[in-house]
């Protein structure tokens, strides 16, 4: 049995950015969540599996506005999305957030996974019953939209390929880039339902040339610009040979 308050782990990345993850979830579904503390609002990027309540763990100042932004609609990123009132995501996945069907969230892959969690989030947890709450978008995003939290202004980059509505968020002043599953330091996925290898190659060319100071991926460790470029080039080389 796991104390729900201890379901998540967190580390401080910068003065105002925390990375959060679910240590007891199978590594295939163990994603990065980010809490960016702003002046006017806090920004939460991605929401884990939804196996334990996320919002209480975040300790957000009472009354402070919260912007919840999902990088894409896969199960490992949107489980606790419904806990937030103001929900942002890309237009191409708006129907997915509203319906949370397996075909877009891929939640069935988690249900079918042997030992999806190494500890139960609560005693009655049954992996076979795993389901995701519907969380319709309240703001539909497109390329070049901005998200303003007072201390940082993030630009939305539409980065399809891993999924149709994958987005990244770039602060062009600091160079901090949240890349979701478009790119991360680990095995990239381009062969699930909804993936588009041709679109992914276009996205990788864009990422290869993107000027960032650091990239925080949907999985794995932070990437330097050089590391991100190496990963993008490796993908382009490998996919050219297929
Ligand atoms: Zn994904
Ligand atoms: Zn993921």
From TrEMBL:
<dbReference type="Pfam" id="PF00753">
    <property type="entry name" value="Lactamase_B"/>
</dbReference>
<dbReference type="InterPro" id="IPR036866">
    <property type="entry name" value="RibonucZ/Hydroxyglut_hydro"/>
</dbReference>
<dbReference type="InterPro" id="IPR050855">
    <property type="entry name" value="NDM-1-like"/>
</dbReference>
<protein>
    <submittedName>
        <fullName>MBL fold metallo-hydrolase</fullName>
    </submittedName>
</protein>
<feature type="domain" description="Metallo-beta-lactamase">
    <location>
        <begin position="30"/>
        <end position="219"/>
    </location>
</feature>
<dbReference type="InterPro" id="IPR001279">
    <property type="entry name" value="Metallo-B-lactamas"/>
</dbReference>
<comment type="similarity">
    <text>Belongs to the metallo-beta-lactamase superfamily. Class-B beta-lactamase family.</text>
</comment>
């Amino acid at each position: 049995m796991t104390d729900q308050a201890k379901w998540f782990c967190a580390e401080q990345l910068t003065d105002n950015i925390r990375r959060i993850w679910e240590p007891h979830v199978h590594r295939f579904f163990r994603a990065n969540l980010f809490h960016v503390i702003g002046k006017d609002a806090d920004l939460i990027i991605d929401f884990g599996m939804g196996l334990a309540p996320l919002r209480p763990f975040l300790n957000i100042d009472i009354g402070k506005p919260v912007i919840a932004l999902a990088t894409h609609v896969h199960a490992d990123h949107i489980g606790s999305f419904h806990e937030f009132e103001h929900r942002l995501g890309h237009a191409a996945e708006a129907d997915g957030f509203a319906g949370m069907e397996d075909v877009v969230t891929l939640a069935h892959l988690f249900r079918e996974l042997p030992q999806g969690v190494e500890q139960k989030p609560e005693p009655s947890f049954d992996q076979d019953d795993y389901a995701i709450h519907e969380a319709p978008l309240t703001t539909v995003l497109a390329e070049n939209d901005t998200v303003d939290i007072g201390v940082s202004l993030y630009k939305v980059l539409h980065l399809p390929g891993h999924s149709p509505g994958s987005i990244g968020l770039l602060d062009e002043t600091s160079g901090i880039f949240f890349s979701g599953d478009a790119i991360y330091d680990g095995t990239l996925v381009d062969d699930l339902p909804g993936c588009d290898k041709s679109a992914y190659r276009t996205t990788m060319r864009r990422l290869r040339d993107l000027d960032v100071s650091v990239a925080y991926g949907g999985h794995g460790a932070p990437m330097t610009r050089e590391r991100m470029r190496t990963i993008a080039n490796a993908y382009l080389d490998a996919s050219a040979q297929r």
